[in-house]
Amino acid sequence: MPLEAGLLEILACPACHAPLTEEDTELACTSQDCGLAYPIRDGIPVLLVDEARHPA
Fold first, then answer.
1. How far apart are CA 27 and CA 13, in angstroms?
2. pLDDT (tens digit per residue) in 3-55
3. CA torsion, points 46, 48, 56, 8, in degrees to nearest 10?
């Protein structure tokens, strides 16, 4: 389930404050230095650094 466009515009990465982009079931940080990916569970973004997937 895609997030509302208005919501995605105001969300930022909790670690570095860069914008996020929606990718399937995650919100990915757009910063080259950070690159964390946050899960979306039941349509709700889980913006906790401890829950984020680190880049490969």
1. 9
2. 777 888 899 999 999 999 999 899 999 999 999 999 999 989 999 999 999 98
3. 50
